[in-house]
Design goal:
By secondary structure, the chain is α/β, with parallel strands linked by helices. The strands form 2 sheets. It has a 3-stranded parallel sheet. It is built from 6 helices and 6 strands. The protein has a single domain, classed as TIM Barrel, CATH 3.20.20.
């Protein structure tokens, strides 16, 4: 449920309309275009291409050209500023990371989502957290770096 009095950005609108974000992850991104077509035909309007898939950036760029503008296509498993820049250059409408790095979030020109708890980040209005996220060693490292209060 959303507060109808608060206008949503295009990515949030796509996620709310869809009800889910379909995550495309495989050893290679070769089949992502066909899968995305089926998902969009089924009403999914938010897709995440994980950067761990070989060919992910090319697939992301292709999906951004192929799919209707009402579909938000983003990049997942964004771990570095180089990942973020490459994904945005490929057309990503949003970025997702398993960890939270305040500098990466601040530099992001598109919405940035994280599994890590984000209340301690100054740019928290730009960050959404994914409920049910888990803490990994890299998340502990980042939380320590930014003095997250446990």
């Amino acid at each position: 449920m959303t507060d109808e009095s608060v206008p949503l950005d295009a990515v949030s609108t796509a996620v709310v309309r869809s009800g889910i974000v379909a995550i495309l992850r495989a050893p290679t991104a070769d089949g992502f275009a066909a899968v995305a077509d089926v998902l969009v035909e089924s009403g999914v309007t938010a897709l995440e291409v994980t950067l761990t898939s070989r060919g992910a950036l090319d697939a992301l760029a292709g999906l951004c050209r192929q799919l209707p503008s009402s579909v938000a296509v983003g990049a997942g498993t964004v771990l570095t500023a180089d990942d973020a820049k490459a994904a945005v250059d490929a057309g990503a409408a949003f970025l997702v990371s398993p960890a939270l790095d305040a500098e990466l979030v601040a530099a992001s020109p598109v919405p940035f989502y994280s599994q890590a708890f984000a209340s301690f980040v100054n740019t928290a209005s730009q960050v959404a957290t994914i409920p049910g996220g888990f803490t990994t060693p890299s998340q502990y490292k980042i939380e320590y770096k930014y003095e997250y209060p446990y």
